[in-house]
């Protein structure tokens, strides 16, 4: 490696990482948090077969899962202003990513809810709890534990998907790298550097996932069973 | 204290329960025996509203309800006065043994936490599970889980506890510990309605036995009498088959 190239890489590292910490990370964290709220509400509505609302939820999942994320970004950021709704790029990205991820996570959580044995609900009724109390205290915690690896999967995907936000002018890591590349024209080295930074983010999240799974295993996990 | 009259239940075209009537007095230990598929479990589940009956009335304490039209609020109110022990234990998997017992006290009955913990520890002590209070269900054997489940039912001071084949899911060597807890409860005067395949329990512990088959009560009476001198041919046959198996 030439000294010039090495210098470009060293200099660009913080210039890529910083937008990562200032844009990619907050975008992911905020959007995923909202997505979880959407997903839990949608999953519970479907699980409880709430009339009309659960049909609406099915429609939402159908539309979101059936259209490309990039198209959804364009509709919201470039399309909605035509209808009089102008959103800041970062806000538009949050809206799209949370609504998109919410649809996928809702299905994951619904599946997990249905996997909780019905005896858990019956036992809840028999000790005098209400349906809402049973859902919040017994069924949902168990379902989220089952769903945890899949949800973590979704979170890791999302970190990488945020690179699409560049297309609606969000100055995240990908855009930062493109700008540096426009100046030095070292696409191979710079984009590999970018990839490694994404890998770094994903690695941290994978590590957090393991940590979380270990914590959740304290009840009923394989290790706990032999304690 | 509990009276069921003309209870009917169908699953589709299949008649599971036809005109079942049953009465339990305070302090009674009533065993329901009979061949599998005879409707014993369904009867118990209808009485605690886990299944919706297609007809019949339930008198609980002083009040009588139509089982088909009973309001959700009444169901909730009655359930606060009963306990239920399942064949498959159904302990809350995400709660420790202690939390399994306190849940019904703090959440459903709004008991202060420290008082609930005291009550729960007493109940766990009664079933010999005090030293396992902080274990999760997956860390307990079947017999231990069932004893915690009994403590969970017991802690709410119910007026009656329903047992749905409480030992049927257990390995043979674990049945004894659960039966002995149930025997202690019976001796202490708890009102119990027990669906069981344990004939020794029915004969020696319960003071009243009901024999059910094909969704109907064939015969019922004082346990000793029913086992020694069954009045109905079907009861005789059933008891004979059982003793032949031993």
What report would you give on this structure?
The complex is a heterodimer of chains A (227) and B (246). In chain A, 80% of the residues lie in helices and 0% in strands. The longest helix of chain A is centred in the first third of the chain and has 45 residues, at 3-47. Chain A contains nine helices and no strands. By secondary structure, chain B is an alpha/beta fold. Helix content of chain B is 39%, strand content 25%. Chain B has a six-stranded mixed sheet, with helices on both faces. A four-stranded antiparallel sheet of chain B has the order 2-1-4-5, with helices on one face. The model of chain B has no long low-confidence stretch (mean pLDDT 95). The chains are: A mainly alpha (227), B alpha/beta (246). Chains A and B meet through helix 5 and helix 6 of A and strand 6 of B.
Please specify the SSE layout and strand pairing.
The complex is a heterodimer of chains A (227) and B (246).
Chain A lengths: L2 H45 L5 H13 L3 H11 L9 H27 L2 H9 L4 H31 L11 H12 L2 H30 L5 H4 L2
Chain B lengths: L1 E10 L2 E11 L4 E5 L6 H8 L7 E6 L2 E4 L5 H8 L2 E4 L11 H10 L6 H14 L15 H14 L4 E5 L7 H16 L4 E4 L3 H7 L2 E6 L2 E7 H6 L4 H13 L1
Parallel strand pairs in B: 3-8, 3-9, 6-7, 7-8
Antiparallel strand pairs in B: 1-2, 1-4, 4-5, 9-10
Helix pairs in contact in B: 3-4, 3-5, 4-5, 5-6
The average pLDDT score of chain A comes to 94
> Would you identify the CATH H-level superfamily of chain B?
P-loop containing nucleotide triphosphate hydrolases
> Which structural class should the secondary elements of chain A be placed in?
mainly alpha
C-alpha end-to-end distance of chain B: 36 Å
Number of domains of chain B: 1
Q: State Rg of chain A.
A: 21 Å
Would you tell me which CATH topology of chain A applies?
MetI-like fold
Instruction: Categorize the overall geometry of chain B.
Output: globular
Number of alpha- plus pi-helical segments of chain A: 9
How far apart the termini of chain A lie comes to: 53 Å
> What's the CATH class of chain A, please?
Mainly Alpha
Q: Would you identify the regions of chain A where 5 or more consecutive residues have pLDDT less than 50? A: 221-227
> And the CATH topology of chain B?
Rossmann fold
Largest interface: pair, residues per side: A-B, 25 and 30 residues
What's the CATH class label of chain B? Alpha Beta
Structural class of chain B: alpha/beta
Beta fraction of chain A: under 5%
**Residue share in helix of chain A:** over 70%
The helicity of chain B comes to: 25-40%
**Largest beta-sheet details of chain B:** 6 strands, mixed
**Residue ranges of chain B: pLDDT <50 for 5 or more in a row?**
none
């Amino acid at each position: 490696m030439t000294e010039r190239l090495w210098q470009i890489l060293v200099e660009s590292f913080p210039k890529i990482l910083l937008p990562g910490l200032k844009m990619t990370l907050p975008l992911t964290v905020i959007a995923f948090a909202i997505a979880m709220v959407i997903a839990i509400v949608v999953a519970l509505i479907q699980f409880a077969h709430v009339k009309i609302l659960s049909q609406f939820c099915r429609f939402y999942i159908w539309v979101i899962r059936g259209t490309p994320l990039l198209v959804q970004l364009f509709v919201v950021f470039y399309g909605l202003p035509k209808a009089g709704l102008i959103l800041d790029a970062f806000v538009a990205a949050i809206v799209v990513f949370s609504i998109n991820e919410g649809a996928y996570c809702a299905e994951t959580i619904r599946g997990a809810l249905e996997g909780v044995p019905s005896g858990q609900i019956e036992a809840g009724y028999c000790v005098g709890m209400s349906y809402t109390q049973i859902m919040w205290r017994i069924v949902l915690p168990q379902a989220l534990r089952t769903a945890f690896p899949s949800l973590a999967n979704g979170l890791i995907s999302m970190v990488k998907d945020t690179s699409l936000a560049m297309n609606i002018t969000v100055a995240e890591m990908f855009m930062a790298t493109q700008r540096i590349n426009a100046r030095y024209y070292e696409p191979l080295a710079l984009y590999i550097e970018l990839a490694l930074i994404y890998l770094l983010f994903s690695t941290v999240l994978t590590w957090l996932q393991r940590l979380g799974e270990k914590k959740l295993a304290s009840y009923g996990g394989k290790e706990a069973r032999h304690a | 204290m509990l009276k069921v009259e003309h209870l009917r239940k169908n699953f589709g075209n299949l008649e599971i329960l036809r005109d079942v009537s049953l009465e339990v007095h305070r302090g009674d230990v009533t065993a329901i025996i009979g061949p599998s598929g005879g409707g014993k479990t369904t009867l118990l589940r209808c009485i605690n509203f886990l299944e919706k009956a297609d007809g019949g009335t339930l008198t609980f304490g002083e009040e009588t309800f139509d089982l088909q039209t009973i309001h959700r609020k009444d169901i909730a109110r009655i359930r606060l006065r009963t306990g239920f022990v399942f064949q498959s234990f159904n302990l809350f998997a995400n709660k420790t043994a202690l939390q399994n017992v306190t849940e019904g006290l703090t959440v459903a009955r709004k008991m202060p936490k420290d008082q609930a913990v005291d009550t729960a520890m007493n109940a766990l002590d009664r079933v010999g599970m005090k030293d396992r209070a902080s274990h999760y269900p997956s860390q307990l054997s079947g017999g231990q889980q069932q004893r915690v489940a009994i403590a969970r039912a017991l802690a709410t001071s119910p007026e009656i506890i329903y047992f749905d084949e409480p030992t049927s899911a257990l390995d043979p060597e674990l049945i004894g510990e659960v039966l002995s807890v149930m025997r202690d409860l019976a001796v202490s005067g708890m009102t119990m309605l027990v669906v069981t395949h344990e004939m020794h329990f029915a004969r020696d512990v319960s003071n009243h036995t009901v024999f059910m088959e094909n969704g109907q009560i064939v015969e019922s009476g004082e346990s000793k009498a029913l086992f020694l001198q069954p009045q109905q041919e079907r009861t005789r046959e059933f008891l004979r088959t059982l003793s032949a198996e031993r």
